[in-house]
Design a protein that fits this description.
Helices cover 19% and strands 32% of the residues. The radius of gyration is 13 Å and the shape is globular. The chain is an alpha/beta fold. The chain starts with 5 loop residues before the first strand and ends with a strand. Strand 5 and strand 6 form a beta hairpin. A six-stranded mixed sheet has the order 2-3-4-1-5-6, covered by helices on one side. The protein has a single domain, classed as Rossmann fold (3-Layer(aba) Sandwich). The chain is built from three helices and six strands.
């Protein structure tokens, strides 16, 4: 098996719970600093947890320019990408994909591939 980062692709409409998922994931990893959506900075690192928000990207080339391939080559990294469907052409085949759907105002349906 090739040594590389674990990539988790989050897909769902606005307000479906993607950022909340990342916040809870980070807390479970022992990260105590506030985890905010990196919508305007695109990429935020919390040690080996890398949080990416692809919402504002025009294409995956912009993520490549930020060094995504180097980040994905480090087996110590866990990379979580919100709006991952916007950069799906550069995601590894074995990435974990999580779909978020609104059921109602307080309920979400989550499916994992």
């Amino acid at each position: 098996m090739e040594n590389k980062a674990t990539v988790i692709a989050l897909i769902g409409e606005l307000g479906a719970g993607k950022t909340t998922f990342v916040q809870k994931f980070a807390r479970a990893c022992g990260i105590t600093e506030p985890v905010l959506s990196p919508t305007f900075v695109i990429l935020k690192k919390y040690g080996n947890l890398i949080h990416i928000d692809a919402y504002r990207l025009k294409n995956s080339a912009e993520l490549v320019a930020l060094g995504i391939h180097d980040l994905m080559s480090d087996p110590n990294n866990v990379i979580i990408i919100e709006w991952a469907d916007r950069v799906s052409d550069i995601l590894p085949d074995d990435c974990i994909t999580i779909h978020f759907e609104h059921v109602d105002e307080t309920t979400r349906k989550i499916s994992i591939e």
